[in-house]
Amino acid sequence: MELKCVPQIYDWGKKGEASFVARLLAANNKDFKIDPNIPYAELWMGTHPNGESIIKETGEPLIDYLKKNPAKMGIAQNMLGGDLPFLFKVLSIQKALSIQAHPDKELAKKLNEVYPDRYKDKNHKPELAIALTDFECLVGFRPLNEIIRFLDIVPELSRLFSRDVLDKFSGEGQTTAAGLFNALMNTSEQKIRANLIELVERLEGSVRKVREDCLYHLINKLNTEFPHDVGCFAIYFLNYLKLKPGEAVFLPAGLPHAYLSGDIVECMACSDNVVRAGLTPKLRDVRTLCNMLDYTSFPPSTLICKSKKTDGISTIYKTPVKDFGVSMIDIPPFQTYLFPRQHSCSIIIVIDGKGDSMSFKVEPGNVVFFDTEADIEVINPNNESIKIFQAYCKLD
């Protein structure tokens, strides 16, 4: 069943035809006109109430169809009370998203009970982000030796902390940057502002090596988008990743992250719980974020999500949750491909290329829901590849 899906308009999205989301919407809907002034940030595919997908042929919400036909969901029907356990998205990012993390199920339940207006559901929100274009993000805490080096070469950073805080961080047996990061996030706005102004001015007049060592391109981007924001200094605490198309990063509960730029396919457990503390005009919950974070230091290479190419065409991204799995299908020219059967219902989106199928129109932007155990065959009669992403639930 082909779906009509909801675009989300957020300030950080790419505007007009620069947005991957907008181009997908226009490619699949002749009546859709791209507005050059609108930031088309996200395309939602699923049953989340903030952006429900509709069955094109009948106009029925997908959630209503699933409630009437639970057997069509396969193993997914028992995971989230009859709702689709995952939310599938495409994101087009121009400006940085907030410094954020997502709660596990236990914390999500507590937050929903205490702050129901702020945290509207009780589910966790592990995420998988797969690059469609070059993608930049901050993910997880840097190795401690890197943070120590930045404290040495960026005096505007070290001046934010008291001698006592710095001594505790550099003391024997210190294994995380928890105390230092907590102190940063609770530093006065006046102190952050003054030191950011000094830092940017100093780096603007510095030689190339100093600018590169101090990550001037990042500090300048973030300070331009969010002037004098404490989150600008987070670049010295969090790993800076640059992913190429097809590369991915998995974000479990409690892992701090911020998307900076690029276009991605994203899949997550069906939740909208976000705890923010920087680079955002939205509500900040610094105390909750600092208490829930995983302060483990990760070498950047360990954060890249492992994947496996099963048949030369389908790439499966390995995630440690049952809520969702994602495959990238890249069908070469003049080949026919039969998708592996899934034990749950699934949603696919055509990203690039055109082809033929008995099941659906194979063209960019088309989003299709398939029942469990569906047979999906795609023929590529052209001399260009077809790229499709498929989201589903997993047995293990």
TrEMBL record:
Its EC number is 5.3.1.8. One of its GO terms (cellular component) is cytosol. Zn(2+) binds at Q100, H102, E127, H257. The active site is at R276. GO terms for molecular function: mannose-6-phosphate isomerase activity; zinc ion binding. The keyword Repeat does not apply. InterPro entries: Man6P_Isoase-1, Mannose-6-P_Isomerase, Pmannose_isomerase-type1_CS, PMI_typeI_cat, PMI_typeI_hel, RmlC-like_jellyroll, RmlC_Cupin_sf. Pathway: Nucleotide-sugar biosynthesis; GDP-alpha-D-mannose biosynthesis; alpha-D-mannose 1-phosphate from D-fructose 6-phosphate: step 1/2. Its cofactor is Zn(2+). Residues 2-144 form the Phosphomannose isomerase type I catalytic domain. It catalyses: D-mannose 6-phosphate = D-fructose 6-phosphate. One of its GO terms (biological process) is carbohydrate metabolic process. Binds 1 zinc ion per subunit. Residues 179-238 form the Phosphomannose isomerase type I helical insertion domain. Gene3D superfamilies: Jelly Rolls, Phosphomannose Isomerase, domain 2. NCBIfam families: manA. Belongs to the mannose-6-phosphate isomerase type 1 family. This is mannose-6-phosphate isomerase. It comes from Lygus hesperus. The lineage of its organism: Eukaryota, Metazoa, Ecdysozoa, Arthropoda, Hexapoda.
